[in-house]
Amino acid sequence: MASHVGTTPLKERAAVAARVVLAAGGGYGIAALATALLSLTLPLPRSEAVAAATLVSFALMAGIVVLVFAMRTLLRATVTLAATALALAGGLWLVMRGIAP
Amino acid sequence: MKGSFRQSMAWLHMWSGLIVGWVLFAIFVTGTASYYRADISRWMRPELVRVEPTDGAGLAASAERAVTYLKEHAPKARTWFIGLPQPDHPVLDLFWRTRPGEPPGHVTLDPKTGAEAAVRDTKGGDFLYRFHFELHMPPLWGRWVVGICAMIMLVALISGIVIHKRIFADFFTFRRDKAPRRSFLDAHNVTGVLALPFHLMITYTGIITLATLYMPWGVTTAYKGDSQAFFVEANWITTPRKPAGRTAEMAPIGPIVERAVATWSEPLERLTISNHGDANATVVAVFEEPHGLSHEHPQIAFDGVSGEILETRNGGLKPAAKTFTTMTGLHEAHFAGPALRILFFLCGLMGCAMVATGIVLWSLARLPKPGERSFPGLRLVQALNVGSIAGLPAAVAVYFLANRLLPVDLAGREDWEIRAFFGAWILAALVPLARPQRRAWCEGLAAVAVLCLAVVAADILTIPGHPLRASGGDPLFLWFDGSMLVLAALFAVASRKVRRYEAPRRERSARSERAPAPSSVPSPARSPARHTEPTHA
């Protein structure tokens, strides 16, 4: 396989690179958004909510990375991640507006 | 990706593994050694002898000497850290921090006189320990690089589990007489699967130890970024106090120490003194962890001016905060007694072996077929494999050797030890580029064996109090030298195996059309039929 590196079409390589970027950026972004949102919304004392959210964030990120590479097309992976991120960001915005004075 | 879920995971496993493989190997080796960090430090400071625990009055007197020294030599520092003498580290370890970004000052004092201790200048096991999570880079950079590698390791573990069709049978499968790729694959599977719970635990808990650095966003939103406030609310630290801006004479440290020692039964480990000379001076007494999985040091904060207790922290963590500290505790294995510690150490070694066999497997799977040109990166990957798998252990051995052979009064001695470490590693990484592959392996592994033997020889020759030379010597030296001998034997056997290795005849006659000449690399004609993905079935 690697000995055919020279023959790998550019398009395929770009697709792989895009997935890497999506997995890393999207995975971290969603994990970060989820941590922020859960820290504010978990029905626990503040410090507990932050600790719990931070603890699970890395499992979440690993899951998203696996998901991105498992999805059949890059487009579907991008849409799924974008939708999730949008939902989380929207929730976070609402919650933060709610607690802002 | 194209193909099935399992195929996409095989692809992910292979590439994520290769990209960070060499760094992960270094992290695993230094991390595994760090289970014996205190012992390594003690071995590297042979001038120190084990003493009986110091009582409260003795600790108080040595703390007074420490403060006297710091007042004279670090009057401008914002924070002083005083490591109090312990039975296996009977000196005062002083650190002070003047401003952020500047490396902290450090000195080791004799607790009985307050003069600088007659101990060779060395970072000891702390160098390996810090390398494990900072890679000897600027701390923030190093921690992020290690964190990213750990995250990729986690992904590699998960995808590795997915691509196993028969994870249970792999416990018992090791086909050492088959083609090299097959044996390496089996070795990779055995070391990976057998210690899988350990690998998952150590990777995840490793990320958790620095979680608030990597994932600060909960603190950002819930605490407006004030991580100290979070740590206080989680019951991890005592409340920090800002300087009041008014000068005030500090209370004598002796009575504070005696009061701290009388409060709890755990040994008092260190003092943190902030804002000395200010009305808000604070002395935090930090104790050794009580027995248990969780990583939490009992603490007492004293007002530095009045000497009164401000607050105490001892347990009482809420569930999530406790989970956090338990994960950190699991990673550091502070709780492990000698037997469990050996088990952790062996699991760590299996982790090293898993990473090492994984990256070797990658290059074995890419050996050119007859008549095919090898792709340019392969040579580099092969050389880097030798440079890390044999090179890093060689560098660690040279680090130990430098500790024994450098002149004791050499200026900047601890830096020279570290230079020796990196010098050896760079050399070990460059030489394989110029050598044939098999010779490079053979010589690299043999060099590690020789260096380990040299460490033992240097230890016996330069330490007059060595138990083999004088009765009543510290048995630590015997244990350390014994482990070095075991390592030397292991590497010698590995080197011999590489030199003597011949592909099994069965494979050779069955697979090759033309008689293969003995080559320096295992001939690819003998490797099993190549699929687009490594076969894990």
Topology:
The complex is a heterodimer of chains A (101) and B (537).
Chain A: H1 10-41, H2 46-70, H3 74-99
Helix pairs in contact in A: 1-2, 1-3, 2-3
Chain B: H1 5-34, H2 37-44, H3 56-73, E1 79-83, E2 92-97, E3 105-109, H4 125-134, H5 139-162, H6 180-194, H7 196-209, H8 211-214, H9 217-223, H10 227-233, H11 253-263, E4 268-274, E5 282-287, E6 299-303, E7 309-313, H12 319-332, H13 338-364, H14 376-389, H15 391-405, H16 413-434, H17 437-462, H18 475-500, H19 505-511
Antiparallel strand pairs in B: 1-2, 1-4, 2-3, 4-5, 5-6, 6-7
Characteristics of this structure?
heterodimer; A: 101 residues; mainly alpha; 0% strand; disordered N terminus; B: 537 residues; seven-stranded antiparallel β-sheet; 56% helix; disordered C terminus
Name the largest protein-protein interface in this structure.
A-B, 40 and 48 residues
User: What structural class do helix, strand and pairing data of chain A support?
Assistant: mainly alpha
Shape of chain B: globular
Radius of gyration of chain B: 26 Å
Number of helices, where a helix is a run of at least 4 consecutive DSSP H or I residues of chain A = 3
Give the proportion of residues in helices of chain A.
over 70%
Q: Care to count the β-strands of chain A?
A: 0
Total beta-strand segments of chain B? 7
Radius of gyration of chain A: 17 Å
